[in-house]
Amino acid sequence: MFLIVEMASSHTAERDYILGVLLGEFLGLPWRREDSDRTDVRITLSGHPGEIRMPDCLLSVSEMDWLKPSSMPKLPLLAWNTSDLGLDANVIDPVLPVIYGNEPQVVCRDEHGIRLPVDVFGSAFFMLSRYEELVTPDRDEHDRFPAWASVAYKEGFLERPIVDEYVEVLWGAIQALWPGLQRQDRYFQMRVSHDVDRPSRYQFGGTRKFIRSWGGDIIKRGQWADSLRAPMIRAARKDQLHPADPYNTFEWIMDLSEQQGLVSAFYFICGRTCGQRDADYDIGHPAIRALLRRIHQRGHEIGLHPSYGTYKSPSLLKWEADRLRRICAEEGIKQQEWGGRMHYLRWETPVTMRGWEQAGMTYDSTLSYADRPGFRCGTCHEYPAFDSLEGKTLNLRIRPLIAMECTVMAEKYLGLGLTDEAREKFVTLKNSCEKVNGVFTMLWHNSELTTTEHKALYESVVAT
Question: Which of 145, 160, 272, 279 is surrounded by the fewest CB atoms within 10 Å?
Fold first, then answer.
């Protein structure tokens, strides 16, 4: 038995991609696409009665309008109460925004089958491919596509895994018509990762930077204990990080991860393309090499944190990836896969993902917004990257980032600080991932665990 998907023959690479992701990878169902002159999408099961029909909006757009503002979703979006269909759908909220689709009808089921008002495949492609980022010109001071410019933020569903919910509705319809089909099992996971911007507060960088850090501890932060230790840490042996350094939280992080059955991923900067914004350490420094060995010995992951200016330069990204792998090889470190995350979450669709692919990396975990947490790609499941300019699937996996600590806590973003509200935000996002049997991927910098309060908040999120 296999699903037969009848649809128009336009944008065939995009259609095959999104059918493969949603039906093949997310649901684990066999499928076949058949070209048709129909204006909607019709799904049937070979040798069985019944059909599922849905609109065909985005992927039927003409070549002239493709990647143009005219092809964007029309705001405000329609809303559909999935309860009207009576399906067993595992959604966050029964009322779903309709990114692409038709006005929901009162009767969605008849003797022929089920009609969905949502263009599931087109809407999912819009989110997974980051289609809007090729259409909408808005960028922030770091040349990033901001949350406030996204359809998800404007329409209030950024904190929902909307693509996963669409898939659950589609599965509910499939199950209602053909209960003999079985989907693949998926289970909730948590991934914790740590961008190593500053492995030490005092050990690296010039004298002027050390004096600024030292003075800031005394004047701005009132951290007298750290300030008294600063000269000692600065003058200590250079072949390892000092255990009293406030940013040297690596052992504590790994201890907690191991207690919770997790593997931490530590992403290291391996080049300098912007002196003021990149790391003050060198990946080849003896202390960093010792840290790499320690992380590997304890069974945790090492990855790449490409420097500030690499997001539009595949050649620079590849150079830094090669350097990381070379130094790891010199230290006897071998891994089955290599991934990481862009510095400052800088991302240019599809140039950055091309850089990751050309560098021979397995996955990227950049795709979240710096200014708001949530589901930038509409999913908390890993999926293959797609290059919408060249119309092809890339040999790169996207692991969406759901929340970064400073996005939730920093004053310039959500500004929730070290509060119960901050914890609730993290936990709510984590619970949404669990609801759809996805992966809650969280970024917490090692340099943001310097106080008992920071550690308590992090531990409460990880352990909940």
Answer: 272
Residue 434 contacts residue 441 (beta carbons within 8 Å): no
Tell me: do 56 and 110 sit in the same domain: yes
Q: What's the pLDDT tens digit per position in 157-185?
A: 999 999 999 999 999 999 999 999 999 99
Same domain, 125 and 270: no
| Token digits of residue 140 | 């922030």
Non-local CB neighbours of 2 within 8 Å, separated by 6+ positions: 29, 30, 31, 32, 45, 46
| pLDDT confidence tier of residue 275, bands split at 50, 70 and 90 | confident
Contact between 58 and 14 (Cβ < 8 Å): no
Q: Is residue 13 part of a domain?
A: yes
- pLDDT, tens digit, for every residue of 298-307? 999 999 999 9
Residue 232 inside a domain? The answer is no
Query: Rounded mean pLDDT of 178-201?
Result: 96
Predicted pLDDT of residue 170: 97
Q: Are residues 194 and 159 in the same domain?
A: no
Provide the pLDDT for residue 178: 96
pTM of the model: 0.94
Q: Are residues 158 and 271 in the same domain?
A: no
Distance CA 398, CA 380 (A): 10
CA distance 49 to 60: 27
Is residue 100 included in any domain, yes or no?
Answer: yes
List, as own/partner pairs, every contact residues 452-457 make where C-beta atoms lie below 8 angstroms and the sequence separation is at least 24, other chains included. 453/418, 454/418, 455/249, 455/252, 457/418, 457/422, 457/423
| Domain residue limits at 10 | 3-177
The tally of domains found in the chain comes to 2
Query: How would you class 282 by CB atoms within 10 Å of its CB: exposed for 0-12, middle for 13-18, buried for 19 or more?
Result: middle
Question: Is residue 216 included in any domain, yes or no?
Answer: no
